Amino acid sequence: MQLFRQVCGWVVLSVMLIGPVSAEILVQHKQGELRLQQVPQRVVTFDLGVLDSLDALGVDVVGVPKDFLPPHLTQYADDRYQQIGSLFEPNFEALAALKPDLIIIGGRSAPSFRQLSRLAPTLDLTHDYTDFLPDFYQNARILGKVFDKEEDVEARLSQIDTQLQDTRELAANIENGLVIITSGGRVSAYGVGSRTGWLHENLGITPAVDNLKEGTHGDPVSFEFILKTDPEYLFVLDRDTAINSGAGAARTLLDNELMHQTRAWQADRVIYLNPQIWYVTVSGLNATPAMIEEVHDALQRAQ
Question: What is the CA radius of gyration of the chain?
């Protein structure tokens, strides 16, 4: 009996010393299943939208690609964050030296999944722009689960739901809108099913054109096309500014005789979207509500 009591005492003491056993973290992602035994502490990400979300959730990282950091994330250019390559090409030597316990990729870096998985557990949070909001919500919830931030994520998503409702109510009162991206002196139009299609599909803005090509690159268009289409609202994304190759290029490009004849120009309804959040950190937990707010405020000003 005495021996039994001693054994029980040892078991109780061992449990007290070890502490509670962490529950396994299991998530599904774009390239499979990820199992983690604890909340990661040495995180690197190649996706700036994910970095935007981690920053919103207060999750620290040890390495990032430092090219094209938007203004609200320039703190990650500091030397205490390791440069781990570009958005497209990982620096495997730098990664190996960092010894991360989680690598997060997305979009441009997704093809490196297998190689990166040999270094550390790797999570692919590539954002599906053709299913913008549901996929954004799913990726946000994955991050919440991985980093034990689920309550924070749900609170933020609830706020976004409210923003969406308010914006849709304003969008119901306008005729239509057209989204264009300017790059290197060229103009492309984007519609439903494109990288900016969620402005129509989720924010409720009726597209000015129905037959634009789906995909990431849009349809090349002329100023004559924009004048003929003559949308009530023209939303402009300046890619040159987004990638630091010419600030304000879109405003100069669009300031011409044909554009001056459009009703959007004449009614001051040419909306220059924040290029960094719409092109670089799109789908982040900071960026997405900021994008919705930008459209909401533009519609509200004009009504």
Answer: 23
Q: Is residue 206 predicted with pLDDT exceeding 50?
A: yes
Closest CA to 285 of 177, 125, 178: 125
Alpha carbons 259 and 65: distance in angstroms, whole number: 38
Q: Number of H helices and number of E strands within the chain?
A: 14, 12
Predicted pLDDT of residue 6: 47
| 3-class secondary structure, 230 | coil
Identity of the amino acid at 185:
G
Query: CATH topology of 24-153 equal to that of 174-302?
Result: yes
Instruction: For residue 80, count other CB atoms closer than 10 A to its CB.
Output: 8
For residue 3, the model assigns a pLDDT of 41
On the CB side of 255, CA atoms within 13 Å amount to: 6
Q: Phi, psi (5° rounding) for residue 179?
A: -105, 130
CATH class of the domain defined by 174-302: alpha beta
> What is the reported pLDDT for 211?
83
Q: Is the pTM of this model over 0.85?
A: yes
User: Class of 24-153 per CATH?
Assistant: alpha beta
Tokens representing residue 279 in the block = 């092109």
Q: CA–CA separation, 56 vs 35, rounded Å?
A: 24
In terms of DSSP bridges, do strands 186-190 and 219-220 run parallel, antiparallel, or are they unpaired?
antiparallel
